[in-house]
Amino acid sequence: MLRSKSLNCPCSIPAVGGLLLILWVAGCDGSKSSSTPTTPQAVAQTYFAPLVAGAGVVMNTYSFDATAATFWQTGFPSGQPGSQVLNAGVFSVAQRGLRSLGISTTYVYDSSVSPALYSPHNFNPPEPGSFAVELSGQAGGFVQLFEQPVEPLVAATQCPNFSSAQNYQFITIPGALIPAGADPARYAWDPTAETAYGSVDISSNGSSMNFQNIRQFTLPSVGGTGAPAQPPPSSLTGICGPTNFGNTIVVPGQAVITSPGATGNIPILTQQATIGIGPSGLLVEDNGSGVTTAPPGSTPVIPYNNVLGAGTGAVGLPKPSAALDTGAMAGTQYLGFIYGAGIQNNSGAGTGWSSHLASFGFPTLPSGCASVATKTSTLIYGGDFPNDDPSTSPDGFGNCDFAIDLGAQDSSNNGLYPHATVWVGAAYAANSTGATYPFSAVAIAGQLNGKYAIFLIGTDSSQPWAIYLLQSN
Length: 473
Fold this sequence. Notes:
Blueprint: E1 45-49, E2 60-65, E3 70-75, E4 84-93, E5 99-110, E6 117-134, E7 140-144, E8 151-154, E9 166-173, E10 176-177, E11 188-189, E12 197-205, E13 208-217, E14 235-243, E15 246-251, E16 254-258, E17 265-269, E18 273-277, E19 283-286, E20 313-318, H1 326-330, E21 334-340, E22 343-344, E23 350-351, E24 354-360, E25 379-383, E26 402-405, E27 416-424, E28 437-448, E29 451-459, E30 464-471
Parallel strand pairs: 10-11
Antiparallel strand pairs: 1-2, 2-3, 3-4, 4-5, 5-6, 6-7, 7-8, 9-12, 9-20, 12-13, 13-14, 14-15, 15-18, 16-17, 18-19, 19-20, 21-24, 21-30, 22-23, 24-25, 25-26, 26-27, 27-28, 28-29, 29-30
């Protein structure tokens, strides 16, 4: 998409496949400006990023060159051979380890020419407003480009080697909320019937990856438990190997399930799921986001939750071997993102979504926090940054206009918090109600590289929400 700023390069430069496009970020006369990313170096770390509704129509990779302090986002558009750089720029490491990204060049699809191509548009100085939060050791994290929703990142550097089954817990990456009575559209999510969270046992045998004991649940009712979501196969097998996205796992998309609205088991052909598991254990899934053809006797069309999450995929954590210290987690500081997925409109697209960089946990609690929620031993205060600009913060902490109360940890599932409560403060940027209000949610938590991670999913009356928090420096 075109940015709101004026572009400093009015000419059209033919696109070049793959990372060679980075060389085009100089001006039209071929001169090099200060905003031009240097040629990618061998030290660059590349991450797999699944599709998130609002961020495009394809899976991506993101590469960060720590030596040159540059990054680039690469997509694999359908109908085009090879890869295509979509955005490129520079970054700096700000307070608490936050990566502040500046976009120097964005590549815009131009269908008015034949053949259609991606034209580069340059920004000098680089356009601010993009951020990344990375795990220690560059094992994964989250990124949010300017005017795009947050995307999870995982460094699928090698295929997992699980000598014994590893138990994972996961939450869905939600799509836009499906209004009551509407037919589901691509990338949408129905929290009343589709997967919100679940668990799976993953083991490996060479390049074969086995997904067993897959359990999927909808959001729990207040004080109740989550109902089983559309039942998946109890086990599936995928193949891990080198792909454009790293050493990712591809799970075949054909399965036999018990289909709601139909009698008996109906074979449903779906797209493939792509799963990356990083060296720290972070799991990220792109579920193919396909909408099936309605089987006989079913109305409306049924989206199948391929392998793990619904919506557009899932993010997961290894299940802790022992119960977590919830009080210690609540007293920790985090950086992350708050994503409101919006609602499906009449054309089937999502509208009204929001995505904001966020900080949670304060060394010294601001006095204004009390107006958001009453403090408990399992509550974490946080919120967005003024004008989405963390550089204006003297200490790297943002507003106090949001709160998460994890509640009690499930007695049978370490790291699962099935009765969390979220308060959206009246001052939060994406709160259009003008009042503070709560909604119930589910959270999973664990440790990655010795630091806490908390992922949460829930819905209010208007849209789904996802919150991703990583312990900060």
